[in-house]
């Protein structure tokens, strides 16, 4: 078990003491949660925040990213953050990251064949399918807070 030396802990009086790794990580998580809750920019983010989520939130604040609302078949809407010049493929990757992170936090199953998902479903915006993975989503007319629908593909003959 690894231990962390901690000489500036409250009550340590400059004396170096060792903490087990799990205890040190617990302290860091608590401090991070306190910082997040106290910051108006980050306060709506979960306590178990990832670096990617922090970077996305900062990019949103600086206008370098936008939120695309993705409506699932069960009418659940997911706010997906992508860069301003994102392609359809970037949006698909962001949807995957969002879903996997959501499942991890809910302790749900995370094994999913995304190749199968994209083979069986389309993303639609304003009645048009987002078929070209290399096309920028802005070229489809998608802007900040627009809604994209995740729909099952109809049998093509």
TrEMBL record:
One of its GO terms (cellular component) is U12-type spliceosomal complex. Residues 1-20 have a biased composition (Basic and acidic residues). Residues 66-153 form the Ubiquitin-like domain. GO terms for biological process: mRNA splicing, via spliceosome. Residues 1-21 are annotated as: Disordered. InterPro entries: SNRNP25, SNRNP25_ubiquitin, Ubiquitin-like_dom, Ubiquitin-like_domsf. This is Ubiquitin-like domain-containing protein. The lineage of its organism: Eukaryota, Metazoa, Spiralia, Lophotrochozoa, Mollusca.
């Amino acid at each position: 078990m690894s231990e962390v030396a901690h000489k500036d802990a409250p009550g340590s009086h400059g004396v170096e003491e060792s903490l087990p790794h799990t205890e040190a990580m617990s302290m860091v998580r608590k401090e991070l949660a306190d910082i997040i809750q106290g910051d108006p920019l980050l306060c709506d983010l979960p306590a178990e925040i990832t670096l990617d989520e922090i970077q996305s939130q900062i990019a949103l604040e600086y206008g370098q990213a936008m939120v695309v609302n993705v409506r699932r078949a069960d009418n659940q809407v997911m706010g997906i953050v992508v860069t301003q010049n994102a392609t359809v493929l970037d949006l698909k990757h962001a949807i995957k990251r969002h879903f996997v992170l959501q499942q991890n936090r809910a302790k749900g199953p995370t094994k999913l064949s995304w190749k199968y998902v994209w083979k069986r479903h389309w993303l639609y915006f304003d009645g048009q399918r987002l078929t070209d993975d290399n096309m920028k989503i802005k070229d489809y007319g998608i802007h900040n807070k627009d809604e994209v629908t995740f729909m099952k593909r109809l049998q093509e003959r």
